[in-house]
Amino acid sequence: MKTLVVIACLCAFAVAQEDGDKKDTIFKILKDCAKKEGIDRGNIKKVIESGAFNDEKFQLFAQCFVKEIGALTSDGTVNWNYIREKCKSYTQDCAFVDECSTKTGSNQAETNASGAACLIVNIHKKMKEMKKNNKDECGEGGCPV
């Protein structure tokens, strides 16, 4: 589940292509999933910056997002190829996706959580760089993380 939090943020970054409508859709999904799980934007930022993804609400938030964007398979595993391709459609610097896809745990939920934690930290860095380089890149309301 922790992995799903990271994946949610990664996918928000990776799927957000130059088409403003697509970015707005991704950020709307992020906001809707956060609202559904009772998580505010400030808390999402704190969790990302601390790396503490052990809260069930954040795990459910991530699962909601991954499911809504189509990166969760029917058996509950993460479709890393999907994430990788979406990332590549946005930026060439997607090595972190490969790194994160190798993270493991003692069961599928822990493996997903480990990969998600890796992704969310890397996506947060990418989004901060993107925001610094182009303040309008994240669309109306700014970047979600």
Task: Explain the overall architecture.
The chain is mainly alpha-helical and 145 residues long. It has one domain: Orthogonal Bundle (Recoverin, domain 1). Helix content is 67%, strand content 0%. It has seven helices and no strands. The protein has helices spanning 2-15, 20-36, 41-50, 56-69, 80-88, 95-101, 108-133. Helix 1 runs antiparallel to helix 2, helix 1 crosses helix 4 (56-69) and helix 6 packs antiparallel against helix 7. The longest helix is centred in the C-terminal third of the chain and has 26 residues, at 108-133. Residues 15-19 have low confidence and may be disordered.
List the helices and strands and how they pair.
Blueprint: H1 2-15, H2 20-36, H3 41-50, H4 56-69, H5 80-88, H6 95-101, H7 108-133
Summarize this structure as a short list of keywords or feature phrases.
67% helix, 0% strand, mainly alpha, 145 residues
